[in-house]
Amino acid sequence: MICPKCNRKYEDDMPRCLWCDALNPNYGKAPSLQKKKKNVKKREIFDDESFEDGTIFKLETDKFVVNVMAILYMVSLMILGVVAWCMIEEKGFLWFFFVPMELFLAFFVYTFSKKVLKVKWLKDKFVLVTRYGKKEFLLGKQAIYKSEITNFGNHYLIFKKGWQTFRLDESDYPKVVKKIIKNQSELTEKNIKCDEKGDEQVVYYPMATSGGKPLIFVEFFCSLILLILIFLKIPERDGYSPAICFLIASFGFFRAYIHSLAILEIKWFKNGFVLRNHYGERTFFFDETIPYKKETDKNGIVRFVFKKGFQLFVVNELDFPEIVKKMKILYNVD
Fold it and tell me: Could you give the CA distance from residue 217 to residue 225 in angstroms, rounded to a whole number?
């Protein structure tokens, strides 16, 4: 399809131009028979009749049983640890091992116990049901807190409501996860604005909201405290290796820096785009910009890295699927 406004080429089945966001005059018209056959599989995944108002998706019985067994196993280890602790007469420094172990097991009990047991699909929202109750999430309202892929290639989504977090695994609810990702990608918040010259620009925001200032502050502050303790020689006085503590602090600073590179906003206009992160924003023009690096992980997720001076900007396909699709066409990336 050739855009009548900017004369650039984009896919025929897209409702708007990739470059100037102008409407596709041919969108919605009856496709050819060959194209219908090509899209049959896609309709079966996303437009399945099972996604009707009020439809309930339940966790499979075998997965529910495995989840209950995991909880009981962790609880039994906690009880066994308490019994062993009571039988020891001279505990001494063993409390330093016992307390973290019990907290570690309690954390896993809580993690397993809050598994999503049901998903209720409604017209413009969905409800996640766990042992602790149920929460509603509106589609297209920045519902996804975090979007990641496991080492086994399965997608999982993290949702947050107040202090509670909910994890929805593709291995448990494949159709629901794919449906939410598709809807969120189409409804990702974007605004059409005009710059100072009067030219239109489309502002995109990330699908997920992870990597925010609170997380960066916690990682940086905890690492800074550990570094101060090292200089005061407190870990060495208590028998801990300063070198290991320094490595932990360095890792914390590194993680804070990586999270600070997250793109908060992308402005896409006729001749280029603007990337904004926690350090500010930079403009990149199409005819002057080449990606500093293009990364593709084993799951096929693409990341474009751009460099301006000493600053790095990482555009992740999980956060900006529509922008990455444009960049693949722009830079001839498969």
Answer: 12
Judge whether 136 and 286 are in contact, CB under 8 Å: no
Rounded to an integer, the average pLDDT of 265-282 is: 86
**Nearest of 7, 39, 41, 11 to residue 26 by alpha carbon:** 11
Residue 302, beta-bridge partner list: 296
Eight-class DSSP state of 141: S
C-alpha distances (whole Å) from 275 to each of 13, 146, 236, 284, 291 are 27, 20, 44, 8, 13
d(Cα 141, Cα 308) in Å, to the nearest integer? 32
Cα distances (Å, whole numbers) of residue 7 to 1, 2, 12, 148, 185: 9, 6, 14, 36, 25
* Pair 267, 202: CB distance under 8 Å: yes
Q: Tokens 């102008």 correspond to what residue?
A: 22
The rounded distance, in Å, linking the Cα atoms of 145 and 167 is 10
The two three-digit tokens of residue 121, written as one number: 């699909």
CB 47 within 8 A of CB 29: no
What DSSP designation does 32 have?
Answer: P
Task: Mention every residue, 6+ apart, whose C-beta is less than 8 A from residue 125.
Answer: 136, 137, 138, 139
- For the segment 124-134, the average pLDDT, to the nearest whole number, is 87
List the domain boundaries for the chain. 1-38, 55-187, 190-209+262-330, 213-257
- Where residue 34 falls (left for φ over 0; alpha for ψ -120 to 50; beta otherwise) is alpha
324 strand-pairing partners: none
The per-residue pLDDT for range 61-103, each reduced to its tens digit, is 898 999 999 999 989 988 988 888 888 777 776 777 788 888 8
Take residue 108 and report the two structure tokens written for it: 């896993």
First to last CA, the chain: 19
Residue 275's identity, in one-letter code, is L
pLDDT at residue 37 above 80? Answer: no
pLDDT at 126 over 60: yes
| H/E element, 78 | helix 61-87
Q: How far, in Å, are 90, 91, 182, 282, 287 from residue 309 at the CA level?
A: 61, 57, 35, 10, 18
256/225 Cα distance (integer angstroms)? 14
